[in-house]
Amino acid sequence: MALAALQSRGFEIPLVLTQPDRPAGRGQQLQASAVKAWAVQQGLAVIQPHGLRLDGRYSTEAEQARASLVEARIDVMVVAAYGLILPEWALCLPRFGCLNIHASLLPRWRGAAPIHRAIEAGDAHTGITVMQMEAGLDTGPMLLSESLNIAPDDTTGTLHDRLATLGGELIVEALRRLRLGELTASPQPAEGVTYAHKIDKAEALVDWNDGAEVIERRIRAFNPAPGAVSKLRGDAVKLWRALPVSAMGSPPGTVVSACAEGITVACGRGALRLTELQRAGGKRLTAAQFLQGQASLIGGRFGA
Question: Which fold has domain 2-196?
């Protein structure tokens, strides 16, 4: 986490902004973000405005947030996956502006879901870009960047954790250079711009007419959330791990084999061997566990 990296290197953190507590889990109890939980544990001041627009629905909270930031006398604001658009007043308030830790090599994958989209697209590598924020969506000049390879078995969860570590290292270096007057901004290239649109839950529904490699990437991209899902005998099943394999021609979605090594399902091109699945309300299971006590799936159909 960037906050932990900054604190460990001696940077003062006078104030932490994070989104309000959200309902989570089966009981839908309010749950604090990981950022808030860590900040409270460290004894740092935390504010959680619902919005930052002074003329918006949460204008009172925005005014209070601005007053808190002014009082904190901040030199720079570090932003990482905050989830709210920063209005002009916030961008201009710190002496050195706002620095964003973005989980892609800009200008590729601007937007809300860069890690998901990089895996889904089959990118061989991604990285972290530290940029100076401006009013546009991830359009600001770049300050530092570093590449990271995407492993063939990376999920959004595993890649996120590695990028978070890299992001912490880069923001520490950026602020070190900023303090020495050695940080230089470069405009983003005009070519190669792509947008990582927010993940819609509807995307998680597997279309078995797609190729096996396409579906396998989506399974990894949607792990841990929202989770790729398909119907089987009328019940929703989440798919967590799979491996593309060759297969004889069968209608897409057809189970062509099922054993402890995996459940092989025909796709529009090739087939997928499902190795980790989860029934609704259950826990993640290996293929062997999933098949226990169940009638033969061979010839059955996913997606139906």
Answer: Rossmann fold (3.40.50)
pLDDT digits (tens, 9 = 90+) for 82-98: 988 899 999 999 999 99
Q: What's the pLDDT band for 16 if we cut at 50, 70, 90? A: very high
Whether the CB-CB separation of 232 and 294 falls below 8 Å is answered with no
The number of CA neighbours under 13 Å toward the Cβ of 227 is 15
For residues 201 and 76, give the distance between their C-alpha atoms in angstroms, rounded to a whole number.
35
Residue 175 contacts by C-beta under 8 Å, 6 or more apart in sequence?
Answer: 6, 11, 76, 78, 99
Nearest alpha carbon to residue 15 among 5, 32, 3: 3
- Domain spanning 201-291: which CATH class is it, in words? alpha beta
> Which of 176, 154, 173, 175 shows the shortest CA–CA distance to 163?
154
Q: At what angle do helices 156-180 and 114-121 cross, to 10 degrees?
A: 130
**Residue reference for tokens 């989830």:** 83
The domain limits of the chain are 2-196, 201-291
- DSSP readout, 69-94? HHHHT-S-EEESS--SPPPHHHHHSS
pLDDT of residue 236: 95
Rounded-to-integer distance, Cα 169 and Cα 150, Å: 18
